[in-house]
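Final report, section 2: Outcomes. Of the targets proposed, Translocation protein SEC63 homolog is the one most frequently requested by collaborating groups, and we therefore present its record in full.
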Amino acid sequence: MGQQFQYDDSGNTFFYFLTSFVGLIVIPATYYLWPRDQNAEQLRLKSLRRVHERCLWYRLRLMKSQQSIVPTLKKAALLLGWAVFLFLAYKVSKLDREYQEYNPYEVLNLDAGASVAEIKKQYRVLSLKYHPDKGGDEAMFMRIAKAYSALTNEESRQNWENYGNPDGPSATRFGIALPAWIVDQKNSMLVLLVYALAFMVILPVVVGTWWYRSIRYSGDQILINTTQLFMHFMYKTPNMNMKRLTMVLTAAFEFDPRSNKEATIRPTDNIEVPQLIRELGNINVKKKEPPFCYPYSLKARVLLLAHLARMEVSEELEEDQRFVVRKSPALLQEMVNVGCQLTMMANNRGGFHAPRLVSIENCMKLSQMVVQGLQESKSPLLQLPHFEEEHLRYCISKKYKVRSIQDLVSLKDSDRRNMLRFLGEEKYDEVMAVLGSFPHITMDIKLQVLDDEDSNNITAGSIVTVTVTLTRKRMSEVFEKEQDSQCPGEEPPAEETQQGEANKSRTKVWQNKNKAAKKVAKSKKKKLTKKKGAGGMGQQPKVEKQKQANGNVAGNEAVATTKEEDEEASDRGSDSDDGEANKDSPSERDEESDKQSDTEVDEIAADDEEEWKALQQSIQRRERALLETKSKITHPVYSLYFPEEKQEWWWLYIVDRKDQTLVSMPYHVCTLRDAEEVELKFPAPSKTGNYQYSVILRSDSYLGLDQIKPLKLEVHEAKQILDNHPQWDIPETEEDEEDQEDSDGIEESEDDDEDND
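The predicted structure is given below as tokens.
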């Protein structure tokens, strides 16, 4: 049986292929690209309007969502694709099937299993009707004759039953779902031209462009040359002040038109940039050190400083300024990463000075300044709307002494209204709405040594894990708590005072239940380890002391516990009296010692089991944190002058303020919506003693919301490892094992001889 390949001359199978191909493109594209989020974006912006209405990024985003034609073009393209798909599907539905299963009974219009007489009769009727000599259809007559032969001739019938064809097995034909004109000799040059254009021009250009871009950028979409530039200057200037840092930042190759097509140099720069320089004052224009003296670097520096000074620029420079400001936070994050890498290299290898802590923290502070559009010396209150320089004198007066956001929040509502009376009622409500949206972060710090028997004992050189639990709330929740609480100057009624004291006592009782139980367990453990010679009279005072120590335990549980202890003490006293009476009996002493040892083993096993469960839970928590991929969309930042929507992100790290060094590398917290748990690891000092560290939480977007918490570290001497542990005396060979068995046998025989003597 042969095989034949042929192209689709009629185009039927090509339509099947084309319909499937268009469907595979249109259906997933509709699911992923249909702009169904347009209404959701409008609703989101509407919900943010009350707080962020005056923000530059909000106005730009609102204008873009209203004027953008991209969603309309997407819908039009997808609808066109669906129209083509439906047309092809309709075309395919009208095509006749070329291949049908041959059935001679259907040709003769007979039911399956008809008798030979019926077949002959039907053949005579149809042959008279379709015979060519009678004016019938010759092709139909040939089909009728073939069907009659398949049902009456034995050989034809067997061929039809075995191969589905009365003529026997035929060659298998495979159709290629491409029209025949593609391989036609007349169209060969056109087809070759299309193939060459697709696979020799377009595909190499696309792959080459992607590869060239990938090798120029890092994982954070920062130019590799920019990272090398930052590393050079941070190594060259370990102690970098804010002015020098601004120069290094604006020297990034992202602002160079030769490296980035988004950056532009305009003909009007020669006029407008010098004018801005004169207004700004001293910005190190005469510095001849490259690349600070290059035109692109000077322009970016001037535009960034004008943004920090909240100066107005021309419409032509405004677009370039937004580009510089928008790129700056990511570049500053890259500078922080570079500073941390150089610090790690200096700690591991040595040989050069690492960047000072002040340099890394200046990068973080400059990020806050860029997002808020404020200079270093300006008040954090200027982040709020309607606040101007002349208004600050009301805040910093001797009566209010409000210099920070926290001072403004902690102020009484009446004093706050009186201080901000220059705003008016409407502006005051807007300021309070913005202030209420600011983040309020609480830090809970836990210090431990994981994967160790005693996780609370920090030894020299051990790996310390500081687990910081961050909880994010809104400032408005702080206002609500202050309003619910009593004012400090007022005294609550006597009944409320008594009730509060009762609640406090109940809280203390509830908190001390576990402590009391632990004390009882420890006292029992001490009694079990002591010698029996003390007797029952010596144990009775200890029970009384124990009862006094646990006097805070309230309710029937405490009474029941003391009664049980009295009964146990009396039982132990009677047992001890019996023991004194029969103290010459060695069997009873052995039984009591066995009981004591069994009790100690059980308690130690229970403690080990609890520690093992805690260790397993910490490991599972870390594994879940590694597997989870959280969104970096947290909360939009309120920023009056930043041109792009910025999310709230934070830096968390540990420092030694005494030596001005980093203890743990800064962790960039990008997923803090409500609560986040972060683990900071660092090696404990090699010398024993007490150390004072600081855990710092620093915002990358807000000024004046940074937090510092002290961290006390008590380092003990490391445990000594026993060299001659009995479990490690394992013989290396069979001969050593036999020698050891022989020596053990000799020692046992000598002991038996001594006992016999």
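The CA atoms of residues 528 and 596 lie 6 Å apart.
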